Amino acid sequence: MDYFPEDLLGAHTKLIMDPVHGGIPLFPHEVAIIDHPLFQRLRNICQNDILSLVFPGATHSRFLHSIGVMHVGERIFLSMVKSYLESRRYKSQMSTTKEQFFAIDYFNKIIRLACLLHDCGHSSFSHQFTRTSKIKEMMESSGLFEQLWQGIDTHNLYDTAPDIIEHEHYSIRCAHQLLHDTHIEASGINPVDVLAIMETTTAHTSDIFNTHAEHFWQFIAGTEVINWKTSTSAPELVAQLLSSIISGEVDADRADYMLRDGFHSSVTIGGFNLDHLLSNLRFGWDPKTPWLGLAITSKGLSALEDFVYSRNQMYRHVYAHKTALGFDWLLREAINEVLEDHTIETYVRQCLTDLNEFRHLTDNYFWECFRHHARNNPNSYAYCIINREKLKHIDTQFDLTPTEIDTRKQTLATQLNVDHSNVVSCTMNAKFSKIREDFDQMKVLVKDAITHQHQLKLIPEVSTFFNKFTDGTIIHFYLKPKRLTIA
């Protein structure tokens, strides 16, 4: 930690050239993590499962996405630090101390690591893997969490063992292993601080983090720190702030995947001005509540509106594309199909409990399973995936209940004079925006025209734009390929 000024100014050892962000510099400890086999497996996991069957350019991997999120996470944090430094200098407030710079450097590094590792637990075909019925049964089996963490004390990470394991839990397990194997402590970083700001954990931050949090809090709060009394400690508030950069309504993950997915899918609807958005982000601090989080200036609201609107459009026209969702349905059925082979089912179970085998659970593994199955079974889901035989789209509905979906299937089957089992549906739950009503994860920094004082307001109090976005469900209906239909 003796070289923090050089680190903040860019004392990196390697540069990765990214088609979306350009050059992305890496610290030595990040290079060690990226070179680890458990992280390298992400090269063989597509970011958007099999979206490339519809948008041919969308073959990009979780590997480069993870590095991109790391880059965006740092940009979010340091852009807010820079704006705060400029504001303090302009207002002639107290100078920044050495301890505060140490804190900034430390938090920047753990943000980068948490962003880099946020998706390292994804398995074959990303989200479609865990949505497959037989895989869900495996991941909901009793004792899986204990097997996954066998020999490791998890009390400092989880208050109680989770009943259902999601891919985020695997990300924590993989991140724990990667940080341990690369001896991250030698770089002055406590691994628990990285894991504490990632999803699913209830970890308590280290003494190192807590000390830095006190100094960072003084950097943000200034003179208001003296009389501040609350049940929520400074380390807790700072941890919540850092977590929101990694996983929030406006976070590094979404910022990268929207730009990256739009770029590789060759669509323009996922684009938004990241520079404009970042230049208007601030640390929001309200000593009365107390509240510490992300804030956006009034003039930056248009950039936030572009961000939310672009995400809305990506869901509707790319992620929920009727042909793409049809292939997702076929993919899940093909996975279920090959898991009927006892040898494959046993090995996948082993992969889900042993990280040494988990690193082999990539898209490539299942593609080989599909090819082998398809050669011997031409009337199979695997054959359809291998040969890109798509489902025939026949209808689209919105916000139907499960009962209404089944009724609609029966109606369509009757109209088309086919067996009910030949009509299938695929559902996309689209959570377009939470920025409405009492949303307080991000606030607007508003300047009073008379007093020229800044105050924080809830976004819905300043903009009605986000009220038009609601969570919804898109349901596409299809006919199975003829080779799979029942006469």
From TrEMBL:
Molecular function per GO: dGTPase activity
Pfam families, sorted: HD (PF01966)
Residue span(s) of domain HD/PDEase: 58-267
Gene3D superfamilies: Hypothetical protein af1432
GO biological process, one term: dGTP catabolic process
InterPro entries noted in UniProt: dGTPase-like, HD/PDEase_dom, HD_domain
The name this protein goes by in its record: HD domain-containing protein
Species this chain originates from: Alkalimarinus sediminis
